[in-house]
From TrEMBL:
This is Uncharacterized protein YcfL. It holds the Pfam family DUF6263. InterPro entries: DUF6263.
Length: 305
């Protein structure tokens, strides 16, 4: 009988441990630096005039976040790019740019290098939501304007392209992919919660993600996510290199995340996106009837600290 009571008590203890609530959130220290190293491969296939055109874009960036202040459950960072690399493979050929490259004739690489020497401010909640990103667009502008050999038009075009990948709105979505993952309340293993994220990367989209607290290991927690993605304003045109375009796209995304048990900062993440739909070029002098372009996009992203 004593053995039976012992087993019953042990089972209650195990059940209590399994149902123990965990406060999944950021717990960062002032004066400490945290990093987010992102590597992504995007494949975009567009159909135009009966022909499929495929572009592969590789993007790598290392971001550093120094905690300068913690106030009212908000973290304030001095952030900066440590490295930026971009390469594109298109039917016309390949292009490669890197902040590590020493070539004054390579303007894009030189702009990347100039950007790594500048700092901007980021504010983030304990649940990982970006509250504000200050000065990053201004910093890009200063980096581009420092090259006198570029005309005003070239500077404008370059800035417009870079803002789509690394401007404040685009960065918000990129950073939040690995930080805005936490629930508002404590959770137990198996619990789920939903987070809405706005994406700005050449077009506006809404991402709705259901996260699940899968398990805890010795020094990290495992979180998984499933997302749906839809363009938010299918009638809104955005200008790109003088061409007005609008998008009607839908997609999904999966996330597998490992986060530090103590700090809540990302240790590793694997993110896979699949998006498809149509892009529309607005009627213009060259295309009086406009143009509908069916497209498919896949994006595999790996994030580490």
């Amino acid at each position: 009988m004593k053995t039976i009571y012992t087993l019953i008590l042990a089972s209650f203890f195990l059940t209590a441990c399994q149902n123990q609530q965990t406060d999944l959130a950021l717990n960062l220290d002032k004066g400490e630096t945290y990093k987010q190293v992102t590597s992504s491969k995007a494949t975009i296939t567009q159909s135009a005039n009966g022909q499929d055109i495929t572009m592969v874009m590789l993007m790598d960036a290392s971001l550093s976040f120094l905690v300068t202040e913690i106030k009212d459950n908000v973290y304030h960072f001095d952030a900066n790019f440590e490295t930026i690399t971009m390469s594109m493979q298109m039917p016309q050929g390949a292009m490669n740019f890197s902040s590590e490259k020493e070539d004054e004739n390579d303007i894009m690489s030189s702009v990347f290098k100039a950007m790594t020497q500048k700092t901007f401010e980021v504010s983030m909640s304990k649940t990982g939501k970006i509250i504000n990103i200050e000065d990053v667009d201004l910093v890009w502008n200063e980096a581009i304007n420092s090259f006198d050999q570029l005309s005003a038009m070239q500077k404008g075009q370059l800035k417009a392209q870079l803002m789509k990948a690394y401007g404040a709105e685009a960065l918000k979505g990129t950073i939040e992919m690995a930080t805005a993952i936490y629930p508002e309340t404590a959770v137990t293993t198996g619990d789920t919660w939903t987070i809405n994220t706005d994406i700005e990367s050449g077009m506006s989209a809404k991402m709705i993600t259901e996260y699940e607290f899968v398990e805890t290991k010795a020094d990290y927690a495992v979180i998984k996510g499933q997302s749906t993605i839809t363009t938010t304003d299918k009638k809104a045109y955005v200008s790109f290199n003088g061409i007005d375009m609008k998008y009607d796209l839908v997609g999904n995304m999966t996330l597998d995340l490992k986060v530090d048990q103590d700090t809540g900062w990302i240790l590793e993440a694997h993110v896979n996106q699949n998006i498809e739909g149509d892009a529309f070029i607005k009627e213009n002098a060259q295309m009086p009837n406009g143009l509908k372009i069916p497209m498919q996009m896949t994006n595999a992203t790996h994030i580490t600290n």
